[in-house]
Amino acid sequence: MTDAQNGVLNPLGLNCLRTFPVTGHVVWGARTLAGADQLASEWKYLPVRRLALYLEESLYRGTQWVVFEPNDEPLWSQIRLNVGAFMQGLFRQGAFQGRSPREAYFVRCDRETTTQNDINAGVVNILVGFAPLKPAEFVVIRVQQMAGQVEV
Fold first, then answer.
1. N or C: which end of the chain has fewer CB within 10 A?
2. Where are the beta strands (DSSP E) in the chain?
C-alpha cells in the first residue's frame, strides 16, 4: 500500500500491510477494532487498550484483600494509598504523560464513589484515571470489589 492508500484506510480503523525497503512487510498502524475516527473510542489505539487492560487486571488482583475489611473510610484511605503507590511507580517509569502525578493519574475511593447503597451491598468502588503517553486522552477505569462479605 502507498502512503495515499494507507491515509484513506487508517481513519477507518484499518491497519494496513505495508512493504518498506529495509524492514520488509509490516502491519502499519496501531488501531483496535474500535479505531475508526468516527467512533471516537477511548480504545482507539492498541497501546492504550493494552495499558488499560494491564491496569484493570493489576488493580483488580491487587485490591482483592479489601473483601476482608469493613467498608468505610479507613478502608477507602488504605485503598487510595495502595493504588496510588502502584500508579506512582508506573508514573516514575514513564507510563503516563504529565509533569506531575496530578497531571498523570488520579485515584478515587470515598463516599462519592461508594454510596450507602453500595456499602449495604458490600461493594467498594474504585475509580482510577490515567493519561496514556499517546494519544493524549484521559482514560478512566472502574474497579469494584465486594467488601465486608466474610462472616465468622
1. C
2. 16-20, 24-28, 105-108, 123-130, 139-146
pLDDT in tens, 81-90: 999 999 999 9
Cis omega (within 30 of 0) for bond into 21: no
Answer with the residue of higher pLDDT: 90 or 143.
90
Residue with cell string 479489601: 66
Amino acid at 136: A
Task: Supply the CATH number for residue 93's domain.
Answer: 3.10.450.690
Q: Would you say residue 151 has pLDDT above 50?
A: no
Answer whether residue 121 is part of any domain.
yes
- Alpha-carbon distances, residue 102 vs 24, 65, 94, 130 (angstroms): 42, 26, 14, 10
How many structural domains comprise the chain? Answer: 2
Residue ranges making up the domain that contains 79: 46-146
Indicate the pTM of the whole model: 0.78
Residue 74: is the preceding peptide bond cis (ω within 30°)?
Answer: no
Average pLDDT over residues 29-57: 84
